[in-house]
Design brief:
It contains eight helices and seven strands. 37% of the residues are buried. The longest helix is centred in the N-terminal third of the chain and has 18 residues, at 59-76. Helix content is 44%, strand content 12%. With 213 residues, the chain is an alpha/beta fold.
Amino acid sequence: MAVEGVVLVLLGAESTGKSWLADALCRDLVAEGHDAVRVAEYLREFSDHHGRTPRAHEQAAIAREQTQRIALAAREHAIVVADTSALMTAIYSACLFDDPSLLAPAIATQRSYAASLLTALDLPWVADGHQRDGPAERQAIDSCLRATMLDAGLAFSVIHGRDDRRLAAARAAIKTVLHPASVDRDTPSWRWRCATCDGDPCLRLPEMSDSGV
């Protein structure tokens, strides 16, 4: 019988470890006995197939395909770990092509997901063929993503660290989503950080949704 799964989305600029973390997090959840599946980044599949990054008029189709793949996985599995969402496509479309038209639907879709994990810029930038632009572009996309999510009131958690520390940070961030009964109900179940600072003294609490996320 199909289920409506919990969707955990990895967001972040290029070369911030989203794919590694999505793989590691999904493997970790499966090892614990969860029915979890990873949804890969369709953009990478598109770029590998065409040997280039998408053009402006191709952005909408890429966003739709990513959303559809996540939705299909969520109908068939209890937990979905998505290696990006339509929001990242919308951010790139707005920043690179000056086309913000994809932002509103992408934000609405992102709001329906259980958790948004933003991978920090604490990993070294690594070239990856035609898909990556450089450290300066990475910083610009990160800033645009944070500002967009804050302006939209989308809760997110910034994930830092390397290897096991990054995985542990992600697991801590999703604890209230996967194990709500184990969390003190007087404690806010989600936090976001400001657009420019990831330090603990600079925390802002978003308005709680009906789901407590």
